[in-house]
Amino acid sequence: MRMPQGPQMPAMPLSMVHAGDTVTVSRVKGAADVKRHLETLGFVEGSQVHVVTSGGGNIIVLVKGARFGLDAKVAKNVMVA
């Protein structure tokens, strides 16, 4: 059994994170093909994601040294804390 380490932040969709924030991926949800695609891009549990810009239904993030633009519908599948 895993013991919690300090106060746990509730997970929220990546689409709700503000520009300039850095968060940690807690889980990826959605259809198998969407999950596989996101995981291939580096959205795996424990990875750090920095939100470069957010707005207008799109979000630009920095993951493992690479920049990606995501549609808000896709970003809702990435749960972060």
Quick summary of this structure?
Residues 12-81 form the Ferrous iron transporter FeoA-like domain. With 81 residues, the chain is of the alpha+beta class.
Q: CATH H level: which superfamily?
A: Ferrous iron transport protein A (FeoA)
CATH topological fold name: SH3 type barrels
Physical arrangement of strands within the biggest beta sheet: 1-6-2-3-4-5
User: What summary fits the major beta sheet?
Assistant: 6 strands, antiparallel
Structural class estimated from helices and strands:
alpha+beta
Number of strands: 6
Give, in order, the helices and strands: EEHEEEHE
Tally of separate domains:
1
- Runs in which pLDDT lies below 50 for 5 or more consecutive residues are none
Helix content range: 10-25%
Shape: globular
**Rounded radius of gyration (Å):** 12 Å
The overall average pLDDT, rounded, is: 90
Can you name the CATH architecture? Roll
Strand content: 35-45%
| CATH classification class | Mainly Beta
- Report the end-to-end length measured between terminal Cα atoms: 20 Å
GO molecular function, one term: transition metal ion binding
Domain Ferrous iron transporter FeoA-like: 12-81
Keywords: Iron
Pfam families: FeoA
Characteristic terms for this protein:
single chain, 81 residues, alpha+beta, SH3 type barrels, six-stranded antiparallel beta sheet, 2 helices, 17% helix, globular
Describe the structure.
It holds the Pfam family FeoA. The protein has a single domain (12-17, 25-80), classed as Ferrous iron transport protein A (FeoA) (SH3 type barrels, Roll). 17% of the residues lie in helices and 40% in strands. It has two helices and six strands; from the N terminus they run ββαβββαβ. The protein has helices spanning 32-41, 72-75, and strands spanning 12-13, 22-28, 48-55, 58-63, 66-71, 78-80. The chain has a six-stranded antiparallel sheet. β4 (58-63) and β5 (66-71) form a beta hairpin. The longest helix is centred in the middle third of the chain and has 10 residues, at 32-41. The radius of gyration is 12 Å and the shape is globular. The model has no long low-confidence stretch (mean pLDDT 90).
